[in-house]
Amino acid sequence: MSTAMNFSTKTFKPRPPDKGSFPLDHFGECKDFKDQFMRCLRENHFDSGACRQDSKAYLECRMERQLMAKEPLEKLGFKDLGAQKSPGPHETTAP
């Protein structure tokens, strides 16, 4: 008689995420940037393209506070925004 153990002896080998894991923002160091980004998304019917500057500012905040690994912004999809510094969470960008 066969048993359930005869199906396959392959074992699953988990792989870590490509970018690795990163700490959560437990102390709210980038909360204002996140809130601004989420507000922008709501105001623009969740069109992320309209909120790229806020997204960039949030990621810069996380990198500056070592909440994620530093990456060139070009690799994160912000090549067209170049090296210009993102405004703070309560500043607005000029059209």
TrEMBL record:
Annotated Polar residues bias: 1-11
Database matches in InterPro entries: CHCH (IPR010625), COX19 (IPR051383), Cys_alpha_HP_mot_SF (IPR009069)
One Pfam assignment: CHCH
Cell compartments where the protein resides: Cytoplasm
A cellular component annotation (GO) from this entry: mitochondrial intermembrane space
Protein biosynthesis found in the keyword field: no
Residue span of region Disordered: 1-23
Alphabetically ordered keywords of this record: Cytoplasm, Disulfide bond
Protein's GO biological process: mitochondrial respiratory chain complex IV assembly
The CHCH domain, residue ranges: 30-64
Keyword match Transit peptide: no
Entry's family note: Belongs to the COX19 family.
Name by which UniProt lists this protein: Cytochrome c oxidase assembly protein COX19
Gene source species: Erpetoichthys calabaricus
